[in-house]
Write a structure and sequence with these properties.
Shape: globular
Structural class: alpha/beta
Distance between the termini: 32 Å
Strand content: 5-15%
Number of domains: 1
Number of strands: 5
Number of helices: 7
Amino acid sequence: MIAIVDTNVPVVANGRSEQASVESVNVCALQLKQITREGKLVLDDRWRILREYMKYLSSSGQPGVGDAFLKWVFNNIANPARIEIVLITPINPNDPDNADFREFPDDPALASFDPSDRKFVAVCLAHSQHPPILNATDRDWWDFREALSVHGVQVRFLCEEGKRHD
């Protein structure tokens, strides 16, 4: 399995998401364990995704499965058999908070897509295989799933809390 992992997946796996059920915690933990045992993670070349992981997880590997995932990332960052790095191109490289990327679709249906999640989409589209993006509880992904799909972006919803039921 090759995948891009939204930060909410290891956060849920750590049991640190109020809206996540016990089942969701277990599903996210299982997915992360599968990636670390036999899969491959895709990250960006400027460590935008990794820096976001570091804001919410502990690199010591303790106490949660999400923390162990971050430790695994650090231990495997230079191993192309486990972690693949893709180049994404910021539209304004001089802006350190830039969340707009050339790889992100220029589509009016995605104009209000969360800027902090655009890096995951850009990584997906920059990769030759367009690996799925794993999402746990972020409902914004659900709102844009069809518009993203048009551009070849598949979001894998691991938890019911990540889907809108309005």
